Structures are given as C-alpha cells and as structure tokens.
Amino acid sequence: MLKYFKKVQTDALNKDGKPKIPPGQYVTEKFPVLTYGPTPGIKTVEWQFRLFGLVEAEKTLDWAAFMALPQTEVEADFHCVTTWSKLDNVWRGVKLTDVLALVTLPDEATFVLQHAYGGYTTNTPLEMLLDDDVLLAHTHNGEPLSAEHGGPCRMIIPKRYAWKGAKWINGMEFMAKDKIGFWERNGYSNTADPWLEERYW
Q: What are the pLDDT digits (tens) for 118-152?
C-alpha cells in the first residue's frame, strides 16, 4: 500500500477554505478503480441521459445534445471513502446547473436519485448539486473518461465522497422525498461529507 499511497503533511486549504486533504485520507498519484459489479461498456452513440420524475416535462439527451451544452472545466480534488484522495484533477463536462435549466421543477422536487447503466443508484438532496463545481464529467486530465472510471460520463461532486457521484450515469430522477441508493442501503453515510468523515451510518 505504501507504494501507491502516502500521508502528506500540508496546511493548504482548498478553494472553499477547508483542508485540502480531509481527515483520515491518504494521497495517491494513481487513480484506483473501485466498482461494485461488472463495468458497463457504453459507447457514446448509445448513451442517453434522462431527466424524469417530478418534472413538468421529461427530457432525454443523446451524446450530441449533451456535448452541445456549455462545456466547463473544474479543477477539484477527489476523495474516496476508502481513505485515498487524488488531488488537483481537471474535469471537463457540463455543469449540473446547466443541465437543470433544461427542465422545470416544482417546489416539492427537493431530492435526486442518480441512475446509472448497470442499475447503480445514489441519492442526494437537490441543493447538493447546485454548486458550481458539480459536473457531469466526460474528460479527466485531458483524456476521455475510461469505462472503468465511469466513462463516457459520470457525476462529480467534489464536496462529497466519490460514491455520491454515479459512474456511467444515465439519468436523474427528481423526487419529493429522499430514497436511498445502493451504497446507502448497505451502510454508507447518506450525507458523505469528507471533512466530517461521514463514511458510514
């Protein structure tokens, strides 16, 4: 393990004024692959993204429509619940706020369940997705996301442990009440704040 992970002593703060390395985390230069179940092989010509549930009218994007949306780069650290962190990643994709602008949501739509190819789900309050650094990312450090890292598209929520952003994402379901996702049903925290070490229930 010491070959790939190292404890870094730093007083550096991230752009939000929090310690760049949350408590209990080790830094890695690698990008470990942690996935439950098989890796879906989704080609961009097959990929679709559906916005549904509590919306005035459902919306489905294909890859061309997704890539036609405003593209944004975000530099952000990536914190895994298994205690590793990969720092200073450059993600490229579409801000969630730009995606949400495509649909009209009623006031009672306050929670989101992310859906992914392969059946994975994870849940968040809608408010958690409104930060400027939350992306539907298709590129990491200048390269298209590989399948094992969630390509062609995955959710990135830098202020939460990484499982809160679904790999191979293909939809967002808007809901009035929270509905816990796969890892949350299996004992992981529902809020997942790395700086509070919210790893498990």
A: 999 999 999 999 999 999 999 999 999 999 999 99
Q: Concatenate the DSSP letters of all residues of the chain into one string.
A: -TTTEE------B-TTSSBSS-TT-EEESS-----SSPPP---TTT-EEEEEESSSS-EEEEHHHHHTSPPEEEEEEEE-TTSEEEEEEEEEEEEHHHHHTTS---TT--EEEEEETTS-EEEEEGGGG-STT-EEEEEETTEEPPGGGTTT-EEE-TTS-GGGS-TTEEEEEEESS----HHHHTTB-SS--GGGT--B-
* 128: its two tokens: 């958690």
Confidence of residue 2 (pLDDT cuts 50, 70, 90): very low
* Length of the chain, in residues: 201
Model pTM score: 0.92
User: Cα 163 to chain center, whole Å?
Assistant: 7
Rg (CA), the chain: 16
Cα separation, 5 vs 48, in Å, equals 36
- Check residue 174 and give left, alpha or beta (phi > 0: left; psi -120 to 50: alpha): beta
Q: Which residues contact 58 (CB under 8 A, 6 or more apart)?
A: 50, 51, 52, 103
| Separation between Cα atoms, residue 114 and residue 93, nearest integer Å | 17
**CA pseudo-torsion sign 99, 105, 109, 114:** negative
